[in-house]
Amino acid sequence: MIKYILLGYLKYQPMTGYDLKQSLDHSVSHFWHAHHSQIYTTLRKLDNDGLVSSEIIPQQGSPDRRLYTITAAGQQEMESWINQPMTHISLLKEEYLVRLFFSAERNPQEVIAELILQIKLHEEKLQVFYQLQHHLENNARKEHPEFERDIHFWLFTLKMGLSFEEMYIQWLNNTLHEIQNM
Which of 64, 89, 155, 156 has the most crowded CB, counting CB atoms within 10 A? Predict the structure, then answer.
C-alpha cells in the first residue's frame, strides 16, 4: 500500500523522502501508518523499477537532498491500481480490541482505568479531525484552489475518520458502563 501512497503524493509534485513523510504524517497516517524506513526503502524500489526518478539536489551546509518525481510508468501504475475495483473488505487491526478480548481475568478497576484513558485518547483524536476538517473546508480551498476536487475526496476520508472516532467513543462508553455494572 505504501507504494501507492507515495506515487499518489508524487502525482501532485516532486518531493523528497522527508517531504513525503511529513505529508503522510499530516494526512493518510490517520488511517495508514508508514515508518520512515518503509518510505525510503519503497522509494528506492520505485526508483529501481522506473516508477519514479530521482535527482540529487546539492545543498551548502546541509546534506544533499534526493528529489523524487513520478514517471509516466509510475503514473500508469497508479492509474491502473486506482481504477481497479476493490472487491474485498480490508481487515481491521485494532490492538485495543485484542487486549479487551483477553481481559476477563484482569482486575476490573484496571480495565475501567484503561477504558477511561482510551476514551480520552479517542476524544483528542476526534478534536484533531475536527481541526483538520476546518482547515480543509476553509484554508485549504483558499490556499490551493487547484486542489478543489481533491479536497472533496480528502474530506470523504476525513468524514469516515470522524464517524469512526464518534462510534468508537460511544462503544468505549457503553463498554465502560457495562463493566462498571458487572
Answer: 155
Cα separation, 19 vs 145, whole angstroms: 21
pLDDT digits (tens, 9 = 90+) for 149-171: 988 999 999 999 999 999 999 99
CB of 7 within 8 A of CB of 23? no
Contact 2, 46 (CB under 8 A): no
Instruction: Output the CA–CA distances (angstroms, integers) from residue 34 to 23, 41, 86, 144, in the order listed.
Output: 11, 11, 21, 26
Query: What's the full length of the chain, in residues?
Result: 182
Residues 68, 74: Cα–Cα separation, whole Å:
11
Give CA–CA dist 84/78, Å, rounded: 10
- The residues near 49 (Cβ < 8 Å, ≥ 6 apart) are 73
Edge-first strand order for the sheet with 15-16 is 15-16, 65-70, 52-57
